[in-house]
């Protein structure tokens, strides 16, 4: 089972906030929240929950009609290859809609996660988003250090996406 947008599961003080009315918003499962620094400086004025029909209006019609082709396995393997062996890409499974990447760190931490990559869509839930991907964690019960591995790997992936964008052009 994939975690819903895990922003709600993230520990307090991570830099983003929600107000009580956010629970009524049609974008709640996909929203990263509002930066706490913004709220401290400007407050919540201008933020109100979206209805489902307002959310639907934000979707570009061509996005509704046809899914984007997914990224080739060789390109993903290259994008997920870590700097200086920080983790090991244990396995990578790619189909026409998504990819599952098993990452592992050995001694002394013994961490393991499975990242699920799908084409970026602001209307779908995601643990994190890059310019190209929605990234989720497969499974449940990850420890804080496992999630730190996920964050580091996703940041690395986001930096490497420029080469992917050039490849897909």
Tell me the total number of β-strands. 7
- Give the count of helical stretches: 5
Our measurement of the CA-to-CA distance between the termini, rounded to an integer number of angstroms, reads: 33 Å
Structural class by helix and strand composition: alpha+beta
- Main β-sheet, spatial strand arrangement: 3-4-5-7-6
Helix content: 25-40%
How does this model look, in words?
It contains five helices and seven strands. The protein has 169 residues and is α+β, with helices and mostly antiparallel strands. The strands form two sheets. A five-stranded antiparallel sheet has the order 3-4-5-7-6, with helices on one face. Strands 1-2 form a two-stranded antiparallel ribbon. The longest helix is centred in the last third of the chain and has 25 residues, at 144-168.
Question: What can be said about this structure in brief?
Answer:
The chain is an alpha+beta fold. It contains five helices and seven strands; from the N terminus they run ββααααβββββα. The two termini are 33 Å apart.
């Amino acid at each position: 089972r994939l975690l819903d947008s895990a922003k709600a599961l993230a520990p307090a003080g991570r830099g983003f906030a929600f107000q009580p009315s956010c629970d009524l918003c049609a974008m709640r499962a996909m929203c990263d929240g509002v930066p706490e620094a913004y709220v401290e400086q400007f407050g919540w004025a201008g933020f109100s929950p979206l209805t489902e029909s307002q959310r639907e209006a934000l979707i570009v019609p061509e996005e509704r009609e046809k899914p984007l082709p997914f990224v080739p396995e060789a390109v993903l393997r290259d994008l997920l290859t870590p700097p200086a062996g920080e983790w090991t890409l244990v396995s990578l499974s790619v189909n026409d809609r998504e990819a599952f990447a098993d990452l592992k760190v050995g001694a002394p931490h013994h961490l393991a996660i499975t990242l699920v990559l799908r084409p970026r869509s602001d209307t779908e839930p995601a643990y994190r988003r890059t310019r190209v991907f929605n990234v989720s964690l497969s499974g449940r019960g990850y420890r804080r250090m496992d999630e730190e591995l996920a964050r580091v790997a996703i940041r690395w992936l986001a930096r490497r996406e420029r080469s992917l964008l050039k490849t897909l052009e």
